[in-house]
Design a protein that fits this description.
heterotrimer; A: 178 residues; mainly alpha; Four Helix Bundle (Hemerythrin (Met), subunit A); B: 348 residues; two-stranded antiparallel ribbon
Chain lengths: 178, 348, 100
């Protein structure tokens, strides 16, 4: 009973945040509603017993990735959106389409999914077990993602650097050597 | 115990913790003004009450009665919400910090903390990460160039030093084997050869480098000298809180000092043995109170160190600050982690 | 005891909101945030199924999704900054010519 109550409350907060992201015209409001969505998702993970994933969701997603989004919005001084012809057409066809699609999916899931109930805190184990899995069964994906993050860091630094600064330095070196 | 008793005990603990924390914040301000004054060969507050002890009360009354300005083109909802966000996240991390052993009061057996989650350390790190929002949104919503620059610099600094902060704590986690703060303190009980306490900075492998990294990352996270360029008076007027007055400024002020106290208590729990003191002595009532006293003494020492550094060192330039965080502290934290893991793995 | 399908419906609603945002919004940063919303919906599905089958690999996969989302948002935001520097606008409808 308490499980259903907490799930509904934070589920409603999630959906309200997601709808607010669509409705708001200024990107900073959308960014803050996305932070609210991530926070309530962390509570849903706690309900399922995935406490380590909930903590990582708050630290990484809400506390680092969304801070990056807020930085970029502040840096580029993004203003309110303007309505163009393309966006009006997309709203006319997109919103009813997605509503029909999601109602269909929800009906199928609620009636015919054939899955049972989930208890509170159903997931077993302290974070130690997750660490064991990461370093034994999932070692290759772990090492590959570390290379991926390194590539992302290098790519972001090069892409966001001021235009011409990287090429100027390398052409100066070529002139000195050649 | 039943659910009703549990809720009542929790509410009492929350009220006591918030009351003690806010009083501690007020008197940390007093302590800072006195200590920095003495370092600069002057008295500090002396007029309001004996030794200036009622100065925080006078400051509080002043903040309540000052005019609360909102600049005309500021983005109002975020301008009003940003100091509240900063203060809420600064006060929330007290909920997982244990200050003593289990005690029995009127037949109720309860731990001396509001809640004991088995990911307590991650909760504190998460709340620290979320605290960046208060600063960033304050700087942006003030619609002023000094505030925006100060806000951007402060958030970039806080995000950069969070990484070294987290990595320096992983060495402690390897030694303790659990994320729960109570378990980490329990792993530091006892002594070596009868007189050296088994604090994490003395255990084998000694976490003294991690303590050093944690200290510097904590100074940067709480925007204190020598890392306080975001609020430097001579450079950016007052950085991200330039346009704030009266109660909203007081909220930022309280949030900064509450963060200092949280960081000091975390350092005590993780590196200095928490509430363990010299060998137990005295009647059972004293034994229940004494751990709280040792905890408070260690936090006081840490806060004194904070204030001492503030009165002594000049501040870093912004590029020096970022280079220090990324090029020195981060590789050092990773090296500490690798060496600790190697020693623990070879020992087992 | 909450039926698993409730968690899946919530995940589906979040995913649908993300797709809708991707279609109707014209600010490039908001489009990017809708992608993050979609990824969050998928993460909820993973953890819900991991809870039902008591399989921890669902949780571990959530970490990989988060790491990929972090890397992708870093690179994507760098691209957005580079586009803003040349085109001076964040509206995707205005970035429709290959030549400036």
């Amino acid at each position: 009973m308490l499980h259903l109550l907490v799930f509904s409350v934070f589920g409603l907060v999630c959906v309200a945040g997601a709808v607010n992201l669509l409705v708001q015209r200024h990107p900073i409001n959308s960014a803050l509603s996305l932070v609210v969505v991530m926070g309530s998702l962390a509570v849903e993970y706690l309900l399922l017993g995935a406490e380590f994933v909930a903590a990582v969701q708050v630290i990484v997603y809400a506390g680092a990735i969304m801070v990056l989004f807020v930085f970029v919005i502040m840096l580029l001084n993004a203003g309110e959106e303007e309505r163009t012809k393309g966006s009006r057409v997309a709203m006319l066809f997109g919103i009813p389409g997605m509503l029909i699609g999601s109602v269909l999916v929800a009906w199928v899931l609620l009636e015919h999914s054939g899955t049972g109930n989930v208890a509170t805190g159903a997931l077993p184990g302290p974070p130690k077990v997750i660490g064991w899995l990461l370093f034994h069964d999932f070692l290759l994906p772990f090492e590959v993602t570390s290379v991926l993050v390194l590539i992302a860091i290098m790519g972001a630094v090069v892409l966001a650097s001021h235009p011409g600064s990287v090429e100027q330095r390398s052409t100066q070196q070529d002139k000195r050597e050649g | 115990m039943g659910i009703g008793t549990f809720i009542l005990v929790s509410i009492i603990k929350i009220v006591v913790a918030i009351g003690v924390l806010l009083t501690a914040v007020a008197y940390t301000v007093w302590l800072e003004r006195k200590v920095v004054g003495h370092i600069q060969n002057r008295w500090g507050p002396t007029r309001v009450g004996p030794f200036g002890l009622l100065q925080p009360l006078a400051d509080g009354v002043k903040f309540i009665f000052k005019e609360d300005l909102i600049p005309p083109h500021a983005y109002k909802p975020l301008f009003i919400a940003a100091p509240m966000i900063a203060l809420i996240f600064a006060l929330t991390s007290i909920s997982v910090i244990p200050i003593g052993n289990w005690i029995t009061v009127f037949g109720i057996h309860t731990p001396l903390e509001i809640t004991d989650v088995n990911i307590g350390l991650l909760v504190v790190l998460g709340i620290t990460s979320l605290g960046v929002y208060g600063v960033a949104l304050a700087g942006w919503s003030s619609n002023s160039k000094y505030s925006l620059l100060g806000g951007l610099r402060a958030s970039a600094q806080m995000v950069s030093y969070e990484i070294s902060l987290g990595l320096s704590l992983v060495g402690v986690l390897i030694l303790a084997g659990s994320f729960s703060l109570r378990d980490i303190v329990d792993a530091q009980a006892g002594t070596y050869w009868g007189f050296i306490p088994r604090w994490n900075i003395f255990q084998w492998p000694p976490q003294i480098i991690a303590f050093f990294i944690y200290l510097m990352a904590a100074y940067a996270e709480t925007n204190r000298i020598p890392f306080d360029l975001p609020e430097a008076e001579t450079e950016l007027v007052a950085g991200y809180h330039t346009e704030y007055s009266a109660m909203k400024f007081a909220m930022f002020f309280m949030a900064e000092y509450a963060n200092m106290i949280t960081v000091a208590s975390l350092a005590t729990l993780l590196f200095l043995g928490g509430w363990h003191g010299p060998h137990r002595f005295g009647p059972p009532l004293l034994q229940a109170i004494l751990p709280v006293f040792w905890f408070a003494a260690k936090i006081f020492a840490f806060l004194f160190l904070y204030i001492w550094v503030r009165g002594t060192l000049p501040r870093f330039r912004y590029d020096q600050l970022m280079a220090f965080g990324w090029k020195f502290l981060l590789p050092l934290a990773i090296a500490n982690l690798v060496i600790t893991a190697l020693i623990v793995a070879l020992r087992a | 005891m909450v039926p698993l399908s409730y968690y899946l419906v919530l995940s589906g609603i979040l995913f649908a909101c993300g797709v809708t945002g991707f279609l109707i919004k014209r600010n490039i940063i908001t489009i990017f945030m809708s992608i993050e919303l979609m990824l969050n919906g998928v993460n909820l599905s993973f953890v819900a199924f991991a809870a039902q089958w008591h399989a921890l690999s669902g949780q571990v996969f959530v970490f990989f999704v988060m790491v990929v989302a972090a890397a992708e948002s870093a690179v994507g935001l760098a691209i957005i900054i580079a586009v803003y520097r040349t085109r001076e606008t964040l509206n995707v409808d205005r970035v429709n010519l290959l030549k400036l």
